[in-house]
Amino acid sequence: MKSFSFLAAALALAVPAAAKAPALHVSGWARAGVGSSAAYVSVHNGGAADRLIGASSPAAASVSVHDSQNNGGVMRMRAAGAVPVGSGGIISMKPGGLHIMLSGLKAPLKPGSRLPLTLRFEKAGLVRASLPVLPPGAQGPAAGGHGGH
């Protein structure tokens, strides 16, 4: 009987636990560009409330979260700081609003390529994504599409 208990314990340790689905799901796209560009992501939070506190990419010297606002017909951009995403909430970035600014591109972002992007959250830590690069003037993938995971 002791050997059965030992075997059951050994099997329990050898079988990996079922993988837990990530609480944060990231999709989006980036705009082609030379020198600087922007990425637009959607973050769906299936877990506890969190905050987006930064971003990085090996493709750019500087990556930051910005917000564009139209003040009297003049578009102004400013650093957004931490962006909250509630439990069950969504962050939706789009042209003319919240976006990820990519400055000092190390090489041009070309349509058809992919942009590696890492988002940093206060609680969840680092979440990596690979976003498709779309032509200048694009407004994003067709409705319902997921641009990268």
UniProtKB/TrEMBL annotation:
Record flagged with keyword Signal: yes
The UniProt record lists the keyword Signal: yes
Species of the source: Sphingomonas kaistensis
Signal peptide range: 1-19
Source lineage: Bacteria, Pseudomonadati, Pseudomonadota, Alphaproteobacteria, Sphingomonadales
Xref: InterPro entries: LpqE-like (IPR007410), Lxx211020-like (IPR058248), PCuAC_sf (IPR036182)
Name this polypeptide is given: Copper chaperone PCu(A)C
Keyword terms of this UniProt record: Signal
Matching Pfam families: PCuAC
